[in-house]
Amino acid sequence: MTKLLSSFILISFFVFFQFVPIQVYAQTQNEIRLTGTVKSTESSEVIPRASVSIIGTHEGTIANKEGRFSIALEQGKNYKLRIRAIGYRPDTINITLSTSEERTFTLQVAPIIGKEIVVSGDASRIEARRIMHEVIRRKKEWQSKLNDYKCSAYSRWNLRTLSGGDTTVQSVLESTADCFWKKNKGFSEIITSRRQTANFPPELNAFSVGDILNFYDNRIEFNDFSLIGPAADDAFSSYDYDLTGTGLLNGASVYQISVEPDLLTEGFSGTLWIDQSDYTIAYLDLSPSKSVKLGPIKDIHLQQTFELFENSFYLPVDLRTNVDVKFQMAFIPEIKFELLSVLQNYSVNKGSEDSLFGTNRHRIAPLADSVDTSKWAATRTIPLAADEAKAYHRIDSTVALARNDSSSSINLLDALQYIDVPSFDHVQGWRFGLSKSIRPVHSFPFTVNGEIAYGLKDMQWKYELGIKQGLIWTTSTSMGFSGDLSGGFHGEVIKEPVVLLSLEAKYFDDLTQRGEAYGSIFNTITSLVYNKDYQEYYHEKGVYLALDFTPSIFNLSVDYHKTQIWDAGQLRIIHLDTVELNTKKNYGAIGINLERHLPFGKFSGKYDISAKQLGSDFSFATLQLELTANHKFGALGISELTTRFSTLVSGDLPRWNNFFFESRSGFFSHGSYFRGLSPFEFQGDRLMSLNLEHNFYDLPTRLLGIHFLDFLDLHWLFHTGVGLLDFSHSHTYSALTTGYLPYSEIGFGIGNIYNILQLEGTWRLTHKTGSNFYPTLEIKFSF
To answer: What is the pLDDT of residues 64-73, one digit of tens each?
Structure first.
């Protein structure tokens, strides 16, 4: 569970880190700093996130959540500072400093909405569309003249956990960077300096802005989403606008316009404040629409402000992002991402080298990690809040202590990793075992693994000993991110060999299960509850050799089995044809396996040959093909289609090698398999099947206007399957096939229950039995 949680947090970290911007400062001997706190004139309460800009320049900063800001000034020089905050009247202050000072500034309350629009709904929507038409028209004019720009930026990202209403800062990452954008080339950045809490190595602080999130863009790209911007050229085909009020924002008269995409649009909903004088976006407060599904991310809140540069271009000067990640499971804390960015020092249409826009768009300057802590404290664009400063001290000291402790202590968990989870089936009874995989040198791809187990019912020892040696390999660097249920997080950089060609050998004496859809944990539950196993078993002993070729575009392996197979005389052990009790048969086979990842899914194929020339008592050849395709239909949901084809090419299959449909295991089911069949209900030497599942997310309830279940974020699903199993060759035993009529089923389900459960109901349409309705539960992590 922790690894799955960690994987999702890592994905979320990189998905939303691209929202962050950055900044560079060069401190001179005559530079001093103004540190200020912005408060309300009426209540004396601090005003968080107020912006402070130097009039006549492209420089500025943002106050932190405690209303504190810090800005570099030149000693003895007169400046005009403009202080602004949403919901307050802006103020302009003349200031000249001879030494660094700390002051308090106040702003008067000025509600954004000065006048609500009280007109018919149609009239307010018509007026809103007129305003947005003008916004988009003017945007096209100045964007057509924008060829390139450069800016500096500062960004700070916090990860917090929520417990009992209180938040705890678990990490802080800061960076400054030079950012570049060029028409038809896109965006790139060079991180010039970075600092982070000690639970993150510098290598994980690898993005500053990422790709600047500019809501003037036609499409906002992140992860696998391409969201339509509220000011896109084609926005009117996807958005509804409504004029809800007028008033003052930062001293300027503005229209307040609500934005809402239609049900099938992946876009944003929220509010735009449009300047009445020049029809520009002065401020916005948006969230992705309900059709955008991001796992357990329950709320994304984005705010952005634009300013005029070179008297022509409206470019973002800040971005404030809050992301709430809430797993609907006990004991897992709510996680909050906070990103605060400020962009400044724009230089527009001055030319940019094409070399800046190569394959690597996020580069690190050679001295980026040469950070002097005192210098950061003096020149940090946005001062640390109190809890952020405490987090630096707490985390850095805790990590240092943990490193000292780990160097001299023995971890009990390391010993527990040798113990396998006990399992139960009706052949072995309770099975207890020990296993371990060891790589003596982490950077060298040689692995030794072993397992020993004992069954209390069959009273037999089972064992396995294997090695795997990489023959051709390279080294890759990956980033890991992990957390625990107490809310602690840390990141690490992992350097591992990437094996392109390897040789594997294994000697074993164990039970081989027939049925791959469910592992020992599922089978233990169904064996105990339903008093029967999903799998069938046979006792196999021998050697396994494999040569694996694994470049990035496909995986190819050739394997060889030379084993002996016994009928152990126990429940659900396969009885080989004409084999007497406790006798053995020789089995020798060569297999060729191919797996290829495709842009839309995955293809796999397997060809097996068993022949007397290979030391086998059997002669046959089989071919198995599988194709999985998935496609996202925007707000309509996502479909996954799995088709399988297996056939006997030559010879005659022994019963234990027959093809069969993977199906439900008692009450449990797996996607892309059948839900309405019993295990091994149909068998044959030729199989064709198709399984389709479509996830509508919450589209049905949104269409019906049912919103009281929104907080659960349930997914509504449809699935169906059809399959054919028969014999194309002669065989010496009887088995039930689907005959001339293919088996078919249809079902519906509710998914994303507590982020891990999917409840389904399935009806058999053909080959009906006494009961043709099957409720099943699938454990399917939705993050």
So the answer is: 889 999 888 8
